[in-house]
Amino acid sequence: MAEMHGTTIVSVRRDGQVVVGGDGQVTLGHTVMKHNAKKVRRLYNNQIIAGFAGATADAFTLFEKFESKLETHQGNLTRAAVELAKDWRTDRVLRRLEAMLVVADKKASLIISGNGDVIEPEMSLIAIGSGGPYAKSAALALLENTTLNAREITEKSLSIAASICIYTNNNFTIETLE
């Protein structure tokens, strides 16, 4: 999987709650172009949370395609993710898109990539983007050593990533499903 630069998206699942959060920084090369982008959004009647890392226009194209797959498969997250990954990998136009998606519903959390990957990570902990490794390390430590809820862990792990990664800021969008 290619590492996507310029953002941090993290998803944490704990005690019946799933949270997806992301920072708001948009960069062009080494220049900050925007501080308050919304890289996390709700899809399919607010039943699915999705976040992206990578090229913004590519991610919006993927959000539209994914939402269409969700409609076709009546909100079945895994089925829609697999179908998107197949199209993404084989379609001449889609396979050039440079982004990754994190998607979650009440039951599952997945990473979808243009390589055809649909991955359900261990412990339902996901972090992607240039700040992803920092956020994942922080979230894992907090999951294993605290009783913080999923939203608190997401927020703290994003803050830690923002303090380390130059492509991540403290302007967060955080969505929760219970």
Report on this structure:
The chain has helices at residues 56-72, 77-90, 132-145, 150-164; strands at residues 9-14, 17-22, 26-28, 31-34, 40-43, 48-54, 99-104, 109-113, 118-119, 126-128, 173-177. The protein is an alpha+beta fold and 178 residues long. A hairpin with a 2-residue loop joins strand 3 (26-28) and strand 4 (31-34). The model has no long low-confidence stretch (mean pLDDT 92).
Task: Offer a concise description of the structure.
By secondary structure, the chain is α+β, with helices and mostly antiparallel strands.
Q: How is this fold's topology laid out?
A:
Layout: E1 9-14, E2 17-22, E3 26-28, E4 31-34, E5 40-43, E6 48-54, H1 56-72, H2 77-90, E7 99-104, E8 109-113, E9 118-119, E10 126-128, H3 132-145, H4 150-164, E11 173-177
Helix pairs in contact: 1-2, 3-4
Measured by DSSP, the beta-strand proportion falls in 25-35%
State the end-to-end CA separation: 30 Å
Main-sheet strand order equals: 5-6-7-8-9
Large-scale geometry: globular
Largest sheet: 5 strands, antiparallel
The overall pLDDT, averaged over residues, is: 92
Low-pLDDT residue intervals, each spanning 5 or more residues: none
Helix content: 25-40%
Number of helices: 4
- Give the helix/strand class: alpha+beta
Question: Could you tell me the number of beta strands?
Answer: 11
Gyration radius, in Å: 15 Å
Order of helices and strands: EEEEEEHHEEEEHHE
